[in-house]
Backbone:
């Protein structure tokens, strides 16, 4: 016999009456309050959003679905296996929409199997080939002698996984770049390579290995679930303790005490403690020692008021180099590129003219894979325009231009009609919509019957910098809206490094970077080195060291800096969700296909199995063990009306 | 068959609140998609669909949690739940590592090692349903709860999950902060629901064999079976979220290749079971849901313990279904929680 049971705070079960405590079944953990319009709180605590008023309807859908699946749940039922293997699932938290989308599959006959050569990889729509075994290599420039010839190697492809996914760049090759003008750049290429900078192009291409890749067949796009806008950030601080050694604990304790002293402006005590940290750190091993070292440095910068906090003059080229090592040593950037590309690919389905705007072009490592995927699209590739934004270079090179050249060369070998434009900008806030829009008259054809250009805006670790200046983010999001993108992909660090006191920020950052460093130690490089063989081993170590420097620079910005100097203002998925929603965007969900492929990518590239992909209300996160560290989300401008962004929901 | 489906659904809906029915039916249908006829499991889709929550060192209702790597070699994680440590009065800082692994109280306190359910294949220690339950145990018993993220089938068959449970118990025995009272004792309870209950039993056996003292076992709808088809299995098949066929699939996925359900892991008091008479096996609280089709096996388990001379308290909730402990919306829930609380406090 069913009985509803009301919970009483006094505790019919004798729950301990600690201050501020009530029987925790109400599930306030996720911060769901009435603003969600009567969401069932008990289910919400378990990760499901169902309005109480919808409960009966949801129950009915469950019954319908069960009938369709076969009453005895025999697993060889055709519809059941269709739901499992062929259907793309989105946002399981929104039960009602999830059920509806499965019920709608009842009316869609299962598609024919594709002629893909890849086993275990059937029927996935818009499958991205895995990221290239090597990124498009960048010339490693010695800033003092940028006119020397540099050589760049394509590393050999990594080992095949059991899933038989093929790397894109099949053949290693050597590409030579010199400072002399290109021997033969035909007029067509010159016209394509319009840039806003006036420096001459200086690259001469060699061949890039032929691309090899398998693709799943195209499928009708699965319906995308919409979700209610999320509430405020939950403010959870997930901690993964890896090292319970006594010495490690004491080290953390001292770090915290020092940060506390800094917060209280007790600089004398802080000075003593920061020296203690260095001593304690020396007796540690592994990740903890390195993290402690960087945090000690960061604290020292704060204590002794070292300005400028970073050596800005070598900044951008050096950053790019560090980032490439970071790209190699662990899967975070690959995941970012992969998941963002998946969303872009899906958004570009059926479009003949597409335009990608990359807010942080750097070495363009994200784009070869997307270009490959577009090239292999059933029905042929669209014409692709790429706009790359980058910071000013302090040396004579034009990295933005060079990247464009390399991508143009790749585009030619894979027969994708390609245009590139690079914009140098100090800040994304300097961009205006007119700079990003399609040119009047198009590419020579023009005319009313030319297909409109479909736009994707891509931002990997760029948006958070804008939070250093009030109004900058709003301006940029306004510019993004103005170009009416089909999709906006955002990848950000999953951390709360932009709120609260110095001490709170310090604590959050300590946990975040400890987990990050631990993953470098335990994950990628070990496996990658093994895969590459002896030759790669030292390369793997170098990658790890440089990655630590890369992360160390972030630490030395997050911790000691304030105001406009502090550009590493990471915020959580929940916080970004709020910002994007307020700016008038609605979520585009990433589905089970992207999740699955991202998970498989980890098995391919990452040595350790501590890396985890998780789905969170239509977004995907990658983390180390149970701590998400980066999050990919996708957005679009609502189709109808073009409502102005408003403060209210 | 359509007609009897309707009857089933209506019957089932009569005995649980609607939101419980929705929750468990959702699991049922999702799980149906994950089990393949060839015995393989769609792990990616399973992980995608599972609702997870992060740990949180900021107190929520007086409870904090953090994840800890118990064993680097096997990558064995556990989520530790504990009452929020008091913040030193002169400091505003949130919990530190040092405070995280400190005793929650100067007085003796229970340590509950919890093994989540999921028929050996589903869920994780960071699944929302189990995070919620473990937090409740902390509040209920003033306990430190260790939720073990054991290896699951079919990727890892017997005895991986038991080995992980044993690793967790040994780890707890070696942590000074988990020992309390004048005698600095580890007051440990082994607990779990469904497959977790099964794991708790087998770890308790190993503990008894090895001389590690366990204060008590708390088994919620523990997962047992055997080759026979019992009366409750016939009577309740398919009626309350669970089918005999799906039980068979999970056993096949967990047990060694070629083994049948009279394997002692599945049927500890069956023809291949071990004798527990001589062992200092711990006391048990066994909770059985009357609408769980495997209840005959659970009742037989309790009987088996009794016959072997061991202390068992059986709580038989005749009208409860599987998963009644996920949502605090029935008398089953509250009365069973009360039983657990009393069991722990009287054996701590």
Residues:
């Amino acid at each position: 016999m069913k009985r509803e049971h009301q919970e009483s705070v006094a505790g019919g079960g004798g729950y301990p009456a600690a201050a501020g405590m009530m029987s925790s079944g109400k599930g306030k953990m996720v911060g769901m309050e009435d603003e969600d319009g009567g969401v069932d709180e008990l289910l919400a605590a378990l990760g499901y959003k169902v309005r109480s008023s919808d409960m009966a309807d949801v129950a009915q859908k469950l019954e319908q679905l069960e009938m369709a699946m076969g009453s005895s749940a025999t697993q060889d039922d055709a519809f059941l296996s269709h739901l499992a293997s062929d259907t793309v699932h989105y946002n399981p938290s929104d039960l009602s929409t999830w059920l509806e989308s499965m019920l709608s599959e009842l009316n869609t006959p299962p598609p024919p199997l594709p002629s893909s050569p890849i086993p275990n990889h059937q029927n996935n729509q818009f499958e991205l080939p895995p990221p290239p075994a090597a990124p498009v290599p960048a010339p490693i420039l010695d800033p003092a002698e940028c006119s020397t010839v540099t050589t760049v190697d394509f590393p050999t492809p990594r080992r095949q996984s059991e899933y038989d996914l093929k790397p894109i760049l099949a053949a290693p090759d050597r590409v030579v770049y010199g400072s002399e003008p290109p021997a033969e750049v035909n007029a067509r290429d010159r016209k394509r390579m319009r840039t806003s900078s006036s420096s001459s192009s200086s690259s001469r291409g060699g061949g890039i290995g032929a691309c090899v890749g398998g693709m799943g067949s195209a499928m009708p796009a699965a319906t995308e679930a919409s979700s209610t806008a999320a509430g405020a950030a939950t403010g959870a601080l997930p901690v993964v303790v890896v090292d319970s050694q006594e010495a490690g604990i004491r080290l953390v304790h001292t770090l915290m005490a020092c940060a506390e002293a800094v917060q209280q402006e007790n600089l004398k005590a802080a000075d003593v403690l920061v020296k203690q940290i260095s001593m304690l750190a020396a007796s540690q091993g592994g990740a903890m020692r390195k993290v402690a070292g960087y945090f000690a440095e960061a604290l020292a910068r704060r204590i002794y008021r070292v300005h400028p906090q970073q050596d800005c003059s070598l900044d951008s080229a050096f950053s790019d180099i560090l980032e490439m090592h970071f790209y190699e040593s662990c899967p975070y950037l690959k995941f970012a590129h992969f998941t963002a590309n998946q969303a872009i690919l899906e958004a570009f389905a059926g479009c003949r003219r597409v335009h990608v705007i990359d807010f942080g072009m750097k070495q363009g490592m994200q784009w070869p894979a997307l270009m490959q995927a577009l090239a292999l699209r059933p029905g042929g590739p669209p014409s692709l325009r790429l706009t790359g934004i980058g910071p000013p270079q302090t040396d004579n090179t034009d990295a933005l231009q060079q990247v464009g050249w390399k991508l143009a060369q790749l585009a030619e070998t894979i027969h994708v009609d390609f245009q590139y434009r690079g914009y140098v900008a100090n800040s994304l806030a300097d961009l205006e919509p007119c700079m990003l829009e399609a040119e009047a008259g198009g590419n020579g054809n023009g005319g009313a019957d030319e297909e409109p250009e479909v736009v994707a805006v891509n931002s990997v670790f760029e948006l958070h910098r804008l939070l250093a200046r009030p109004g900058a983010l709003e301006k940029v999001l306004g510019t993004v809206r103005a170009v009416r993108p089909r999709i906006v992909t955002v990848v950000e660090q999953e951390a709360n490094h932009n709120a609260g006191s110095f001490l709170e920020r310090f604590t959050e950052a300590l946990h975040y970077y400890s987990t990050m460093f631990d993953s470098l130690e335990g994950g990628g490089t070990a496996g990658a080195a093994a895969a590459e063989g002896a030759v790669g081993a030292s390369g793997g170590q170098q990658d790890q060291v440089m990655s630590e420097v890369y992360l160390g620079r972030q630490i030395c910005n997050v911790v000691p800096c304030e105001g406009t100097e502090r550009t590493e203002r990471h915020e959580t998925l929940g916080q970004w969700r709020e910002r994007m929603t307020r700016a008038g965007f609605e979520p585009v969900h990433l589905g089970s296909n992207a999740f699955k492929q991202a998970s498989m990518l980890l098995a391919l590239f990452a040595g350790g199995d501590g890396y985890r992909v998780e789905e969170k209300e239509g977004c995907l996160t990658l983390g180390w063990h149970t701590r998400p560290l980066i999050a990919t989300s996708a957005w679009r401008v609502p189709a109808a009306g073009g409502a102005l962004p408003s403060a209210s929901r | 068959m359509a007609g009897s489906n309707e009857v089933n659904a209506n019957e089932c809906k009569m005995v649980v609140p609607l939101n419980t029915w929705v929750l468990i039916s959702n699991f049922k249908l999702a799980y149906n998609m994950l089990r393949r006829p060839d015995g393989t499991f769609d792990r990616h889709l399973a992980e995608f669909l599972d609702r997870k929550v992060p740990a949180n060192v900021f107190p929520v209702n007086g409870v904090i949690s953090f994840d800890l790597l118990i064993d680097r070699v096997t990558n064995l994680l556990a989520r530790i739940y504990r009452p929020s440590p008091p913040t030193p009065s002169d400091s505003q800082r949130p919990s530190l590592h040092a405070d995280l692994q400190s005793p929650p109280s100067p007085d003796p306190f229970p340590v509950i090692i919890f093994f989540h359910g999921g028929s050996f294949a589903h869920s994780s220690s960071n699944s929302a349903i189990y995070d919620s339950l473990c937090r409740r145990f902390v509040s209920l018993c003033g306990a430190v709860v260790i939720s073990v993220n054991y290896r699951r089938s079919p990727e890892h068959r017997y005895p991986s999950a038991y080995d992980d449970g044993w690793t967790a118990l040994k780890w707890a025995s070696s942590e000074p902060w988990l020992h309390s009272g004048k005698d600095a004792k580890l007051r440990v309870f082994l607990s779990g629901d469904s497959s977790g209950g099964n794991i708790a039993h087998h770890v308790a056996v190993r503990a008894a064999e090895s001389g590690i003292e366990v204060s008590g076992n708390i088994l919620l709808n523990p997962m047992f079976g055997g080759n026979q088809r019992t009366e409750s299995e016939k009577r309740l098949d398919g009626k309350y979220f669970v089918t005999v066929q799906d039980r068979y699939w999970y056993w096949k996925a967990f047990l060694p290749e070629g083994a049948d359900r009279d394997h002692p892991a599945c049927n500890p008091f069956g023809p291949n079971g071990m004798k527990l008479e001589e062992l200092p096996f711990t006391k048990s609280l066994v909770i059985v849901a009357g609408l769980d089709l495997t209840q005959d096996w659970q009742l037989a388990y309790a009987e088996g313990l009794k016959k072997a001379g061991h202390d068992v308290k059986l709580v038989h909730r005749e009208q409860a279904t599987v998963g009644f402990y996920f949502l605090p919306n029935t008398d089953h829930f509250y009365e069973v929680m009360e039983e657990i609380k009393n069991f722990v406090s009287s054996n701590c």
Q: What stands out?
A: The first strand of chain B starts at residue 63 and ends at 71. Chain B is about 40% helix and 15% strand. The mean pLDDT of chain B is 93. Chain B touches chain A through 88 residues (CB under 8 Å).
